[in-house]
Predict the structure.
Amino acid sequence: SNVPFITLNNGVRMPQLGFGVWQIPDDEAQVAVRNALDAGYRSIDTAAIYGNEEGTGKGLAASGVARDELFITTKLQNGDQGYDSALRAFDTSLTKLGLEYVDLYLIHWPLPAVDKYVDSWKAFEKIYAEGRAKAIGLSNFHPAHIQRLLSETSIVPVIDQIELHPQLPQAELRAFNARHEIATEAWSPLGQGKGLLEDPKLAAIAEKHGKSPAQVVLRWHLDLGNVVIPKSVTPSRIKENIDVFDFQLDSEDLAAIDSLGTGVRLGFDPETFNG
Ligand code: NAD
């Protein structure tokens, strides 16, 4: 496929567009992952809390795609934060996925009031040193949480996976990450397919380029430098969401998309969510 790679701060290359599997039941994940791999995706984003690491692993194994062509991300679930529990949780995730290593392991949420992310990160550093995760990173971390890791631990996270879509463009957090050589990955990049994709401004841009609103939104993310992981179980949409490398948005389009920002979140606020 034509998916470009970004180079993470430890030299590992990550496809800029991947496939998210949140809310796909375990017994449907195998087929969904297989459909994504057949469509050309090579990066898959799962998490222990999604309950579909086994189905995801089955889809990877059945595909016959070589391990070194795949980029597999999973995440430490909130209840397993802490040094020893994170090490145990990582072993469980690897077993469920049927893999000897993951490409990227993320702390799913900072849980500031729980205050275990520094210890969890020290476990991540050990997992990384052992080569069982080729890169380690964060999800839903804000600058204060990241600053604390930078001052109390050794390894700079490669990425921060955050809620990011045209309605919540996250300019400040993206700039903070960029200053620290931390890549930004967008979760719910399509705004979960709810109101956003029906916006008439997006429809007009899509029509102008002969593409769909979802494709326009994904192109916007790629132009910003975000890693994106759109989710779908519908084979035609799985194909549509990776078919975004044959058109370019112009400055007028980008300005119209920028005007969609509302600052309203679809998910939890990392400052107040404590699992
Ligand atoms: P998304 O923004 O990818 O939207 C997915 C939904 O949009 C689909 O269920 C479908 O209803 C619709 N859709 C998809 N393709 C479409 C198309 N081409 N045309 C029209 N509608 C379309 O939402 P998401 O699943 O929440 O986010 C993507 C991934 O991000 C998840 O699967 C997961 O891997 C990750 N994620 C991570 C966190 C986190 O806390 N780290 C939180 C949420 C999601």
In short: The pocket of nicotinamide-adenine-dinucleotide is lined by residues 20-22, 45, 108, 139-140, 161, 187-193, 197, 212, 214, 229-232, 237, 240-241, 267 (CB under 6 Å). The first strand starts at residue 5 and ends at 7. The CA atoms of residues 118 and 149 lie 6 Å apart. The beta strands are 5-7, 13-15, 19-20, 43-45, 71-76, 104-107, 136-139, 159-163, 183-187, 227-228.
